[in-house]
């Protein structure tokens, strides 16, 4: 469906056209009419499907011609990176619409805090905020949410996983009861539906392409012992000399610097990024990675959602994520917008159980590989649940073709 068929204001359509887009993604096609019709909404769609546009575009449509400076829309997100990204997209899509926005997140300077306080006290059309920082402002008593008409929770599953449920409940208590509430999530766990029932009124539901990697991702597994991981990681990267954009994901902040040092000893320059860095440092690393000045980025899961970096050649999972859905979000950093990409996961015996959970979630087995001979034999793939020791049926291979789609918009052809 073309954006022109969605009854959006001509100024919004002009901005979309100016950015070179013509066709709506499936989530946008389904969500935008419901939002324009003032329905509460639960939308479940994986990362990279255009969720941000699905709620930003109809909100901009509603803000056309707004005369006052009151806060109209509150968007709550789990990470500062996602807050920054969404505000940037708002600025791009509102190029021909007079709309003000401000992102509110931790890690900034005193000047940033003053700007946030001014926007929350005196008003701006759209606030994009992380729960913790927003709550700290609310506790100071100057935030004016009396005129909020739209509440949007983006990456709601992630916020609940990160323990923000009490913060969200407290924030929502400051909002008018009469409002439109939109909840966007990459997965639809029972906890999400339970929470949604508490804050939404007769919501419409949309569920698209849940928890499957994009079709363009070539997935594989290396079965390794822990002592083989660094050597196999370096081997994978050195084999792909033409890849200029690689992310290595690890589950803990403590491992980031260790991996960076180990790659350095192998002659591979990389940069690490985690919440241990100050915000300006993180933004500088991201700028270097986007511009290809940094070829290899070692990151924690905070990077796996909400970072829109295009043309990433490869994602390597140094260890298997604790949550199966996080695998989809990590892998979703590559093969965006119908491009091609590669995702490799290093799996030790302890992590085989988690990897099997991932295969159940994506409804496909991932091809299993042994390390190169010079590194020695890796463990054998084990089926079944672990019972103290990992005994099972041995190796198997499968195919990893998927029909998922990841894109923000469909480019004109």
Structure report:
The structure is a single chain. By secondary structure, this protein is of the alpha/beta class. It folds into two domains: 3-208, P-loop containing nucleotide triphosphate hydrolases (Rossmann fold), CATH 3.40.50; 217-411, P-loop containing nucleotide triphosphate hydrolases (Rossmann fold), CATH 3.40.50.300. The protein has 14 helices and 16 strands. It has helices at 10-18, 26-36, 51-63, 80-93, 110-122, 131-138, 156-161, 165-172, 190-199, 229-239, 253-265, 279-290, 324-331, 352-362; strands spanning 21-23, 41-45, 73-76, 101-104, 126-129, 150-153, 180-185, 204-208, 217-223, 246-249, 271-273, 296-299, 314-317, 341-347, 368-369, 410-411. The strands form three sheets. It has a seven-stranded parallel β-sheet, sandwiched between helices. A seven-stranded parallel β-sheet has the order 11-12-10-13-14-9-15, with helices on both faces. Helix 12 (279-290) links the parallel strand 11 (271-273) and strand 12. Residues 386-413 have low confidence and may be disordered.
């Amino acid at each position: 469906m073309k954006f022109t068929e969605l009854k959006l204001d001509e100024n919004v359509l002009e901005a979309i056209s100016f950015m070179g887009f013509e066709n709506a993604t499936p989530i946008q096609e389904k969500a935008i009419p419901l939002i324009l019709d003032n329905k509460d909404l639960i939308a479940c769609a994986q990362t990279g499907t255009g969720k941000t546009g699905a709620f930003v575009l109809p909100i901009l449509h509603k803000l056309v011609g707004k005369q006052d400076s009151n806060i109209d829309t509150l968007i709550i997100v789990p990470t500062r990176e996602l807050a920054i990204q969404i505000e940037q997209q708002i600025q791009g899509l509102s190029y021909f619409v007079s709309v003000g926005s401000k992102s509110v997140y931790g890690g900034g300077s005193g000047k940033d805090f003053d700007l946030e306080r001014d926007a929350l006290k005196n008003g701006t059309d759209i606030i994009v905020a992380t729960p913790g920082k927003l709550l700290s402002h609310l506790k100071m008593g100057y935030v004016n949410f009396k005129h909020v008409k739209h509440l949007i929770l983006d990456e709601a599953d992630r916020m609940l996983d990160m323990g923000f449920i009490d913060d969200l409940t407290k924030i929502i208590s400051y909002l008018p009861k009469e409002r439109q509430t939109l909840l966007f999530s990459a997965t639809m766990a029972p906890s999400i539906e339970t929470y949604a029932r508490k804050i939404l009124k007769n919501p419409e539901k949309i569920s698209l392409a849940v928890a499957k990697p994009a079709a363009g991702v070539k997935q594989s597994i290396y079965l390794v012992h822990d002592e083989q991981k660094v050597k196999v990681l370096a081997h994978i990267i050195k084999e792909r000399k033409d890849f200029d954009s690689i992310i290595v994901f690890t589950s803990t902040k403590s491992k980031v610097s260790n991996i960076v040092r180990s790659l350095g000893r192998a002659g591979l320059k990389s940069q690490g990024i985690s919440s241990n860095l100050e915000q300006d440092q993180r933004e500088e690393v991201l700028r270097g990675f986007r511009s290809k000045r940094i070829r290899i980025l070692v990151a924690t899961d905070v990077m796996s959602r909400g970072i829109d970096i295009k043309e990433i050649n490869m994602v390597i999972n140094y260890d298997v994520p604790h949550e199966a859905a996080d695998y989809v979000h990590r892998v979703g950093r590559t093969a965006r917008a119908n491009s091609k990409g590669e995702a490799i996961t290093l799996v030790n015996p302890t992590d085989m159980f988690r990897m099997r959970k991932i295969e159940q979630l994506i409804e496909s087995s991932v091809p299993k590989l042994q390390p190169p001979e010079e590194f020695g034999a890796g463990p054998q793939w084990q089926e079944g649940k672990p019972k103290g020791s990992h005994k099972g049926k041995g190796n198997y291979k499968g195919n990893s073709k998927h029909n998922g789609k990841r894109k923000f918009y469909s480019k004109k052809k």
